[in-house]
Write a structure and sequence with these properties.
single chain; 360 residues; alpha+beta; 6-stranded antiparallel β-sheet; 6 helices; 18 strands; 28% strand; binds zinc ion
Length: 360
């Protein structure tokens, strides 16, 4: 929600809506799909999902009347001007610079607007509303396209949390369907709980939950997934490796959480290991980058070469991810929450998909 502030010193005012950081590629088409100024003076518009908007207001000057405009990512095909009625002089759709779309509403000179009370509100994932004026006389609706069009969710998106701004910054890339097989290895299990952290939090539980979410997300993207374990069983390292080597898996990802010696609460951070090859290293880099994004403040311990059994003996590109320190104050507090585990799972999935897209 944005309030428009009227400041005499800064007649030029810009407001940024950071709903997420997904930025469309420069050459993509306009993110503006439809717009309408309704008879009650409300502007509504529909965009692509995950759109960053910038909205501006400028007071009238010698050349033009009051103007309100919104910039959208993506390039408009046909710049055009539409005649207004009532207090609106005209609406212009243009491309202020390459790869952008601008919707300008210019008011007639005598119009009295109250931008102080304006609020641009997101009413949906892809719909927006702002009350611009109270029509004194009859005002005829102006617009293009259908604003109310319902977004059709693909079946596989139902399970992805849709709550505003929660995971959308982690929009997952598309990959070729049914082409890839990924083995996910949740560390430890059964009588071996792995690391035990603050408040008794157990590595085996954390990594199993994260792994299962990764499995679900990858499956929804058309990637085949095999888990080395699906529940609390005692699984030694050699069977994990032979399991992976007996498949045609493209990659192997082992998921772990860390503990520091002496259980030092000041030690936090994320790290990803590979054993050999540029592919393993690339996969590690992609995953490390994404898990850091969802763990602000937690140190980047880097992408490193490590001689862990499971990544040393698997034949495909393999990595071992440490998603945080269960003994660290910052990491443990997060890792005990399902929301953070989901974010980490998204991040790992994103890293995997990016890798598959690049190398696959
Ligand atoms: Zn471990």
């Amino acid at each position: 929600m944005i309030k428009f502030l009227d400041n005499k010193l800064f007649r030029y005012l810009s407001v940024f809506l950071f709903l997420n950081s997904a930025i469309l590629p420069v050459k993509s088409s306009s993110a503006l799909a439809a717009w309408a100024i309704k008879t009650n003076g409300v502007l509504e518009f529909r965009t692509k999902s995950n759109t960053n908007l910038k909205a501006y207001f400028q007071k009238a000057n010698q050349i033009s009347g009051d103007r309100f405009w919104v910039d959208f990512p993506g390039e408009l095909k046909n710049p055009r001007t539409i005649n207004g009625n009532g207090p609106i002089k005209e609406i212009r759709l243009g491309k202020p610079n390459k790869g952008k779309t601008r919707l300008v509403i210019e008011f007639k000179k005598e119009t009295y607007l109250k931008p102080l009370s304006w609020k641009l509100v997101g009413i949906d994932q892809n719909r927006w509303r702002i009350k611009l004026f109270d029509p004194k006389y009859q005002f005829e609706k102006i617009g293009e396209g259908v604003v109310e069009k319902k977004k059709i969710f693909k079946a596989n998106q139902n399970s992805i949390p849709q709550r505003k701004s929660e995971y959308r910054y982690l929009k997952l890339p598309e990959v070729k369907q049914n082409k890839f097989l990924v083995v996910i290895d949740p560390g430890h299990g059964g009588p071996d709980p792995g690391a035990i952290g603050i408040g008794g939090i157990r590595e085996t539980d954390v990594v199993l939950e994260v792994s299962k979410i990764v499995e679900k997300l990858l499956t929804e993207k058309g990637v085949k997934v095999r888990l080395t374990r699906k529940n609390e069983i005692d699984l030694d390292l050699p069977p994990r490796v032979s399991f992976a080597n007996n498949t045609d898996a493209d990659i192997f990802v082992s998921i772990h959480a860390n503990a520091s010696r002496g259980k030092r609460r000041d030690i936090n951070g994320l790290e990803t290991f590979y054993y050999r090859g540029w592919r393993g290293r690339l996969l590690a880099k992609k995953i490390q980058k994404q898990i850091l994004r969802v763990s602000p403040g937690s140190p980047d311990r880097g992408v490193k070469q490590g001689r862990f059994y499971v990544i040393k003996n698997t034949r495909m590109p393999a990595v071992l991810v440490e998603i945080g320190f269960l003994t660290g104050r910052l990491d443990a507090r997060r890792l005990e929450k399902t929301t953070h585990r989901k974010r980490l799972a998204y991040a790992i999935t994103k890293g995997i998909l990016e890798y598959l897209n690049k190398v696959g």
